[in-house]
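Bumping with the actual sequence this time:
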Amino acid sequence: MAFHLLMWQNNRFEIRVPLLIYITVAFMLGTLFMVALAAFTQMAFIDDRNYPGGPNAFENNMFSIPVDDSGNAAFVLSNWLADALVVWRCKVIYQSCRVPIWIVMVFPCLMLAASVAMGIMFLIQVSTTNPYFTNNINFTLPYLSLSLALNIIVTIAIVLRLLTFRYRIIAVLGPSHGTQYTSIATMIIESAALYSAVSMTFLVLFGIGNAVSQVLLQSLSQFQTIATLLIVVRVAQGKGWSEGTAAMVMSAQ
């Protein structure tokens, strides 16, 4: 749907092409993750079912084989793309804010850089059997926690901005104006709240050692991709918040 809308809608070329590249890469990474996950699961439960200790021991001991490494790499790259998109949306939504944009964006950008660095450490850890990386620190929880913190902070920032704008519109123009930019559904989509909610649930369950966390982990990449594609769909439909939205809606008096 996102690809179709971007191809046939009359969006600006400088926006359409990067978004087409983005959704193509995001879809490919999401697909690669699922293929690698299915292949690794098949190896554990079917091909190497007689591995000493069973499938659980196989997955714990063979986490650094190429098929699992490719899935982990796809997951992390997809995560970086999703984080970068919500940071970009935050910049767009705060573009017309009275506060200088660099002040608003400095903290999310620093967190994004830290998330990339932690993701690299996570990939190194899961792709090697070196005791230095595997026995001292488990980078899984810190990496996912940092990514979640970034998404929550940006989500809150975007929702607060949209709520503030909603209040101003209602006060000046009445409740019937600007609803496509300030509705509850808009806030959920624009802020990628779907992914933040699923990620938070996973981290809580993972932190307490609940086995259900593994179910959410397998679907986390897909929720991430869906959340980003929903944002792209809104942009492609011309409903997404742009740098001139605030002035456009407030001038429609």
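The tokens above came from a reply further down the thread. The longest helix spans residues 13-47.
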